[in-house]
Amino acid sequence: MAEVWQWLLDHGVVVITYLFLAIDVILRILGLILVPRNRRPGSALAWLMAIMVLPIVGFPLYLLLGKAELPRKRREKQKVVNRLMHARAQDIPDSELDEDAPSWLQSAVRLNRELGAFPLTGNNVADLEIDYDTSLARMAADIRTAQHEVHVLFYIMALDAVTEDFFAALAEVADRGVKVRALYDHLGSLTHGSVYRAMRRHFDAHGIEHYPMMPVKLFRDGAFQRPDLRNHRKLLIVDGQIGWLGSQNMIAAHYNKRANIRRGLHWQETMARLRGPIVSEMNLLFSTDWYYESSEQLPMETVVTTPEDTSGTYECQLVPSGPGFVFENNLLLFNQLFYSAGQRISAVSPYFVPDESMLAALVTAARRGVDVELFVSEIGDQFLVFHAQRSYYTALLQAGVRIWLYQAPTILHAKHVTIDDSVTVIGSSNMDIRSFLLDMESSMMIGGTDFMAKMHEVENAYRSRSRELTLEEWEQRPVPMRLLDNLCRLASSVV
């Protein structure tokens, strides 16, 4: 034993060197075998570059963040959820598009039904709210009308000075016997510290049943789970009759972050309030997420209800997406609409990091004469994403896309698209790779000329608060900034 120990002392450096080289080669070979399987070429190349440059760091990161899927037991549960969604969606009546609707819109409806199970519903009422405090006040007022149940799901929920009345409304109805169920993303809400804990204490004090979605447990269900798979949806349903959907989280507009308050940053949102048959689709989506986290199947008669208000004229269809679905539902929907547009595309997205197919769809639309405009923020709150999205501006501007920069210190966090005068898509989905692959999202497709007029009013308001970026201005930016943008674009491909 002493001789072996002495030999290791004498030759340790050589042994460690050869061992390191062996591990280095093995990790590179494993990377070449594992990374390209069922992965976009751009993403595969980015991961392979990370592994080849520094295998000891790159390969463990790939194991941690390289697979955009749920662990086996969670996937099995998701299959149950999808079957449940398909079965219960049969009880929601189908609607037909107006005779003057373009043929491509019917194709989009069929695509959405195939991807997400939900039918097109008619006779819906919808309006918009873009004032942050007013939308909170209106949601609280709707909650106070509840007689049976309230369902709340937000990526971020926190009890602070701005959201206090919303949570007070939930407590009031819970105290008088209304069933309140609440879901919030674990990581999205947990990072807000004291106001997150205050919300949980508030729920417990008033007997409100609540669960964190996608809780961060690396080895939950007996298998490794990628920690950045998140539920990014925002939904509020009252008695199955009133529904809210959009981009706004349940937190103060500055997100209670000292850096945001110091810089004067605050978030601009767009929310839609809906009544009619579409609210049952929203309730059904909530019920699947509820089952996913609580294992409780909500009674069918409380999930799909007969709408009290069918006076509306809008056709609506809900489109869920996320890692639990086989296809990237939101990406396929956006691309279908972009290629179908004949006159106009107006897109609003705070985080615009498209994959190759979406970039091609927008550039192609602009090149064939469609009036394409993109609203983004002049400043960013996420360094990597902000600089990655800037790397796409040159190709868009050269193709003729008009880029509107929503002026600082506001972060334009709204997420919606209008196509011609035919259809709107609004919801929680950004136009970035994370929203396409990693986040559970909810988007709503809404048709109706009256609703399009409302959307154009919102776009006009955002345009009045923005300045247009020109190709001449963009080409004059410093070379170091160009290099930084392109480097961040490469890093953003590693998903």
| Fraction in beta strands | 15-25%
Structural class: alpha/beta
Our count of helices gives 20
CATH superfamily of the largest domain: Endonuclease Chain A
User: What does the overall shape look like?
Assistant: globular
Helical content stands at: 40-55%
CATH architecture of the largest domain: 2-Layer Sandwich
Briefly, what CATH class of the largest domain? Alpha Beta
Largest sheet, in brief, is: 16 strands, mixed
Quote the distance from N terminus to C terminus: 48 Å
From the alpha-carbon coordinates, what is the Rg to the nearest angstrom?
A: 24 Å
Q: How many domain modules?
A: 3
CATH fold name of the largest domain, please? Endonuclease, Chain A
Strand segment tally: 20
Give the low-confidence spans.
none
What average pLDDT do the residues reach? 88
Transmembrane segments: 12-35, 44-65
Membrane topology: Multi-pass membrane protein
GO molecular function: transferase activity
Main location: membrane
Structure report:
The protein has helices at about 1-35, 40-55, 55-65, 70-90, 105-115, 130-145, 165-175, 185-190, 195-205, 260-265, 280-295, 300-305, 330-340, 355-365, 385-390, 395-400, 435, 450-465, 470-475, 480-490; strands at about 120-130, 150-155, 180-185, 210-215, 230, 235-240, 240-245, 265-270, 270-275, 315-320, 345-350, 350-355, 370-375, 400-405, 410, 415-420, 425, 430, 440-445, 465-470. With about 500 residues, it is α/β, with parallel strands linked by helices. It has three domains: about 1-65, no CATH class; about 70-95 and about 125-315, Endonuclease, Chain A, CATH 3.30.870; about 330-490, Endonuclease Chain A (Endonuclease, Chain A). The two termini are about 50 Å apart.
